């Protein structure tokens, strides 16, 4: 069965992986993010408990 022979597919997989790791990924990581997270102060709102009329 030819799909069990890893000889041609293993080389293609490693070549693709090295291409992604050393050529494509640094180019993608060099882009700047436009929406950087800011340090917002979260103010907690005081909530009142719900009064259920049937209890």
Automatic annotation (TrEMBL):
Membrane topology according to the record: Single-pass membrane protein
Pfam families, alphabetized: ATP-synt_8
Claim: Iron is one of the keywords in the record: no
GO MF annotations in UniProt: proton transmembrane transporter activity
Subcellular location: Mitochondrion membrane
Keywords: ATP synthesis, CF(0), Hydrogen ion transport, Ion transport, Membrane, Mitochondrion, Transmembrane, Transmembrane helix, Transport
Transmembrane portions of the chain: 6-24
Location, primary (coarse class): mitochondrion
Gene Ontology terms: cellular component: mitochondrial membrane; proton-transporting ATP synthase complex
GO biological process, one term: proton motive force-driven ATP synthesis
Family assignment from sequence similarity: Belongs to the ATPase protein 8 family.
PANTHER family: ATP SYNTHASE PROTEIN 8
Protein name as annotated: ATP synthase complex subunit 8
The species this protein was found in: Centropus unirufus
Organism ancestry: Eukaryota, Metazoa, Chordata, Craniata, Vertebrata
């Amino acid at each position: 069965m030819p799909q069990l022979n890893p000889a041609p597919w293993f080389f293609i997989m490693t070549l693709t992986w090295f291409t992604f790791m050393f050529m494509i990924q640094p180019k993608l990581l060099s882009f700047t993010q436009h929406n950087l997270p800011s340090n917002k102060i979260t103010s907690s709102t005081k909530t009142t408990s719900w009064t259920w009329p049937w209890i």
